[in-house]
Amino acid sequence: MALCDLARRAQLDRRDLQVLAAANALRSLAGNRREALWQSVAAAPDRDILADSRIDDETPALGAPSEAEDIVSDYNASGLTLGRHPIALLRPVLLEHRLMPAATLRAYRNVRLARGCGLVTVRQRPGTAKGVMFVTLEDETGNVSVIVWPSLLEKQRKEALGAALLAVYGTWQCEGEVRHLLPSDSLTCPVCSADSRRSVATFAKASRVLAKTRWIDFKTS
After folding, report:
1. How far apart are CA 49 and CA 43, in angstroms?
2. What is the pLDDT of residues 123-165, one digit of tens each?
3. Measured in Å, how far apart are the chain's first and last C-alpha atoms?
4. CB contact at 8 A, 87 and 118
5. Do 209 and 131 belong together in one domain?
6. Which of 5, 73, 104, 152 has its CA 20 to 30 A from that of 12?
7. Quick check: is 71 in a domain?
8. 128: which DSSP letter?
């Protein structure tokens, strides 16, 4: 079935087809996102003065988006992706900085020095916690809970409150099923300052729109 057949049978207009193409829902009919977006313009019939005109236009050879671009487009279109977690794209670089995935950290013994990195998904600052902030980092293997003390929060407020991707150096603490990472004296993102331009470009594409942080502040005045 061609896109024009789909548009006719389902009574889809051009905007409908473009939304489907942006979500990669037309892949089996029109190829990659770029090809589908191009074809969606011609697939829906015009309903204005050009309705009876005939335009023969061949689809150009459009290169497929990169994996990072596909992931970003997935999140832009539907808020999720069926592909890999964006941190998986950065894992080789993160391992060079000895930043371990959540699954590896979970097996660490108590008070072991640890390094973790992930997208910031939740920030919580309960009023009863005396200024302590709880941060949840997410990577391709799970979540890591981070406890940020007030002194470090004031020292690196910009990173603690605004970073989409956060790397933490500190001590791993575990007691029973309770596990968290206590930062020593720094919150940073080494990927952003890496010399590799490819790493920086990958981070920019994969994390710019993916980390939609949920901020919960229970503090009362």
Report:
1. 17
2. 998 888 888 999 999 999 999 999 999 998 888 888 888 888 8
3. 62
4. yes
5. yes
6. 73
7. no
8. G
Count of structural domains, the chain: 2
**Structure-token pair, residue 165:** 């991707």
Q: Are 31 and 60 in contact (CB under 8 A)?
A: no
- The domain of 142 spans 86-217
Place of tokens 């409150």: 161
Is 210 found in the same domain as 102?
A: yes
Quick: pLDDT tens for 13-24: 888 998 998 898
Closest CA to 64 of 26, 25, 31: 31
Residue 25 within any structural domain of the chain: yes
List, for residues 148-159, the tens digit of each pLDDT value. Answer: 999 988 888 888
Average pLDDT over residues 173-179: 92
Residue 108 structure tokens: 């660490």
- The residues with which 122 forms a beta bridge, in sequence order, are 136, 214
Neighbours of 79 (CB within 10 A): 9
**What token pair was written down for 45?**
């019939």
CA distances from 208 to 69, 164, 187, 214 (A): 11, 8, 18, 15
Q: Could you tell me if 114 and 10 lie in one domain?
A: no
Is 87 within 8 Å of 140 (Cβ atoms)? Answer: yes
Structure tokens at 104: 């590896």
| Domain-located, residue 79 | no
